[in-house]
Amino acid sequence: MKLVNIHKQTLLLLFILIGFQAAQAQVWSLQQCIDTAQVHNKNLQMSRNNISIGEQKEKEAKANLIPKVTANADYKYFTNLPYQLMPLSTFNPTAPEGQFKEAQFGVPHNINANLQLSMPLYNPQVYGAIQTTKIASELTELQHQKTEEQIYFEISNLYYNAQILHHQLAFIDSNLINATRLLKNMQLLNEQLLAKGTDVSKVKLQVAQLTTQKESISSKYEQALNALKFAMGISIEQKLQIEPNIQYQNTNEYTPSSTLDIRIIKTQKRLLSSELSTLNKSRFLPSLNLIGMYGTTGFGYNGLPNSFLDFYPIGYAGIQLSYPLFNGTVTLRKINQKKFELQNSELQFGLLTEQNNMQVENAKLQRMVAKKSVETTTEQIELAKTIYEQTILQQKQGTASLTDVLLADNALREAQQTYLTAVIDYLKADLELKRLTGNISTTK
Fold first, then answer.
1. Mean pLDDT, the chain, integer
2. From CA 401, how far away is CA 199, in angstroms rounded?
3. How far is Cα 217 from Cα 178, in angstroms, rounded to an integer?
4. For labelling alongside 319, which of 34, 133, 188, 417 has CA 20 to 30 A away?
5. Domains of the chain: total
6. Is 285 part of any domain?
7. Omega before 108 cis (within 30°)?
8. Are 78 and 108 in contact (CB under 8 A)?
9. Rounded distance, CA 363 to CA 428, Å?
10. First vs last Cα of the chain: how many Å apart?
11. Side-chain half-sphere CA neighbours of 39 within 13 A
């Protein structure tokens, strides 16, 4: 019976095949996937549109300082001219005081056309709105950076998941080739009455299990690639091939800095403070506007004996002062609301800071455990390979059974899977630690 250790040869063949396929199709690195998402991801596109909206709102607030000119025109036909009470002495000098006579004034046709100018000289609401929209634009920019960070995080995790599934397929193909060759050998030995039928059935079962597992992993791999394409914002039909080699390396500790979540909370607090300041100013400070108007007024009569339509100019310029005396405590209620919102913002800041500190410590622990697991599983793979090779030799010498070979093969496969999982866990924990310490931008 000839049984050879083909794990190394099979893996070498698989990686040569991967390299050949990479030469025929474009291989997408993690950074290329992230760069593509920067252009095509729809969430990022909407986030950039929100930045533009914020800029327009800021310009809109500043535009309230520009003079406003309006054109007005109206025509009125009086079916009944307005009445006015006149002292009776106006018509009769001898009439006693306190008596009045009604009289109709004006003509049926009235036309007005004018231009009105209004320009704020000082308006606390306008200046407060300018400051508020400026802070709101900063907040929108931070939220865009947060969206970028989330996309980076999502694509990285999807890419890592696809890599581990890719390597699982490689290992399954290697083990399946081993099992298939072992099955042929066992069938030959069975025909020569040197092996039991149950031994053949055991190997057949292993081949069937590996085949089913390969189909399941292949489906999961395609699903991971489709999810990665969706996150990148490209078509599902587009061909995508990832780098098979997992870039694993020990990294240094990160210097903690302010995370985007904390910066967003701080900016939201500034926004609330600005809104509260604007409400206080509008409550106690007057508004001063420059006003002016120039136009014409027309009076017309179409009856006998004299029809006419005459126009007379009208114009004025002045300053208008407005001071709020009492508005039903509406502004006071708004001020109280903003004060409570500020208190919630301060509480949220404290809560987020404590939560971030806790998550940083947990991420450090997870990364440390994953690092040790990588080191341990690396040794386990080498040990499992040695055991497998020795078991093969022992079986050739007749001192090991088929069950021993299958167990050694399963132990090797489990060590391979554990190693891949440990590496991915380390990369994910390291990525999470970068995000929590505000260093994720250094990876871009």
1. 84
2. 10
3. 18
4. 133
5. 1
6. yes
7. no
8. yes
9. 9
10. 55
11. 6
102: in domain: no
Q: What is the DSSP letter of 89?
A: G
Two structure tokens written together for 273: 């403070």
Write the CB contacts of 194 (distance below 8 Å, at least 6 apart in sequence): 1
Range of the domain at 48: 7-76+124-443
CATH assignment of the domain containing 278: 1.20.1600.10
Cα 92 to Cα 99: distance, rounded to the nearest angstrom: 11
How does pLDDT run across 285-333, given as a tens digit for each residue?
899 999 999 999 998 888 878 888 899 999 999 999 998 888 888 889 9
How confident is the model at residue 248, as a pLDDT? 65
Tell whether 211 is covered by a domain.
yes
Spatial separation of the C-alpha atoms in residues 65 and 54, rounded to whole Å: 18
Cα(149)–Cα(349) distance, integer angstroms: 20
In a domain, 114, yes or no: no
At 264-282, the pLDDT tens digits run: 999 999 999 999 998 888 8
Q: How far from 342 is each of 73, 165, 166, 258, 349, CA to CA, in Å?
A: 48, 48, 50, 20, 10
Instruction: Give CA 239 to chain center in angstroms.
Output: 26
Q: What is the pLDDT of residues 94-104, one digit of tens each?
A: 778 888 888 88
Q: Which helix (H) or strand (E) covers residue 198, if one does?
A: helix 197-232
Q: Which of 113, 109, 111 is nearest to 72 (CA)?
A: 113
**Cα 351 from chain centroid (whole Å):** 22
Q: What is the largest CA-CA distance in the chain?
A: 151
Four-CA torsion 228, 231, 235, 240, nearest 10 degrees: -30
DSSP output for 213-247:
HHHHHHHHHHHHHHHHHHHHT--TTS--EE--S--
With a threshold of 0.85, does the pTM exceed it?
Answer: no
pLDDT digits (tens, 9 = 90+) for 203-242: 788 788 888 988 999 999 999 999 999 999 999 888 889 8
Among the listed residues 189, 218, 339, the one whose alpha carbon sits nearest the alpha carbon of residue 273:
339
